[in-house]
Amino acid sequence: MDFKQLRYFLSVVEEGAISSAAKRIPIAQPALTRQLKLLEETVGATLLLRSRQGIRLTAAGEAFHIEASRLLREFEQAKENARRIAAGQLGQLRLGVTVMHLWVPQVVQLLNTFREQYPDVTLKVMSLLSAPQIDALRRQQLDAGLLFFPPPDDADLCSHELYRDRLVLVASAGSRLASTPPQRLADLNGEDFIWFERSASPAYHDKLIHAFQRRGFTPHVVQEGTDNATMLCLVAAGMGCTILPEMTMSGAPAGVVCHYLEDLDLPLPLKLVWRRDASLPAVHRLIDVATRILATNSGGMAPWAGHTGQPASSSTTPSDS
């Protein structure tokens, strides 16, 4: 039995006569009769009773007609789903994003545009720091990730820059650093500093430490936070200052201010990262959307545009660009 025989059977039932069905299909009537006989032999039961008035279903034929109709509908749906998945229009896309990136306008624009263009692809957004994202990509537990500084020597990963952020000094609004902002990194020597464990994001951690060292700054770490959100809360509590991407200020708690430092010039390219051997078409559709957005925005998604030296509650409204 094959799907062709099922379609022949359903056509005969709908037409009520083999001759009419043969013309509709079209197929020679003897050939259609032969296919129906083969179908009945495969099923092991008589499905049709033939007479001069046409055909009618047996009891077995009635039951078989119901199941055959359902089976063909499911088969057609399966084919359609397969085609749409192959085109990146259906399925699930597992995307890693750090917590603080979820409300960055450029990331929101990417996710919303993808959702609008591919509404039947489920975006499973997983909140992970950069290092866990890289590990999950390598283990094929993520399809793509949004992160800073993917490993430059990993031939198995590809990346596409979305936008460039910059680093800012973040301090409590009631602190001396807020009222008398320092100008350079070296001015922070001796200040209580909030930092994060290297294991959370080794590449990001090392680049920042090297940048600090080149500018004569050695952090006096008094407290460690597990992520940017925690570090912001520790700053708001008056436990020290820190250095964070400017975009994190869009989600900063009240009582926190940020300032630019003259020599804090390490660029932070936020990148969309995926496996080179990614076979999921939806990944490539996400890349296409990111590429089109970049082109529309004249070569790049502009960094978050906020003001400095003011409380976060009044200075961290993201731009609409």
Automatic annotation (TrEMBL):
<dbReference type="InterPro" id="IPR005119">
    <property type="entry name" value="LysR_subst-bd"/>
</dbReference>
<protein>
    <submittedName>
        <fullName>LysR family transcriptional regulator</fullName>
    </submittedName>
</protein>
<feature type="domain" description="HTH lysR-type">
    <location>
        <begin position="1"/>
        <end position="58"/>
    </location>
</feature>
<keyword id="KW-0805">Transcription regulation</keyword>
<comment type="similarity">
    <text>Belongs to the LysR transcriptional regulatory family.</text>
</comment>
<dbReference type="Pfam" id="PF00126">
    <property type="entry name" value="HTH_1"/>
</dbReference>
<dbReference type="InterPro" id="IPR036390">
    <property type="entry name" value="WH_DNA-bd_sf"/>
</dbReference>
<feature type="compositionally biased region" description="Polar residues">
    <location>
        <begin position="310"/>
        <end position="321"/>
    </location>
</feature>
<feature type="region of interest" description="Disordered">
    <location>
        <begin position="302"/>
        <end position="321"/>
    </location>
</feature>
<dbReference type="GO" id="GO:0032993">
    <property type="term" value="C:protein-DNA complex"/>
</dbReference>
<dbReference type="GO" id="GO:0003700">
    <property type="term" value="F:DNA-binding transcription factor activity"/>
</dbReference>
<dbReference type="GO" id="GO:0003677">
    <property type="term" value="F:DNA binding"/>
</dbReference>
<dbReference type="Pfam" id="PF03466">
    <property type="entry name" value="LysR_substrate"/>
</dbReference>
<keyword id="KW-0804">Transcription</keyword>
<dbReference type="InterPro" id="IPR036388">
    <property type="entry name" value="WH-like_DNA-bd_sf"/>
</dbReference>
<keyword id="KW-0238">DNA-binding</keyword>
<dbReference type="InterPro" id="IPR000847">
    <property type="entry name" value="LysR_HTH_N"/>
</dbReference>
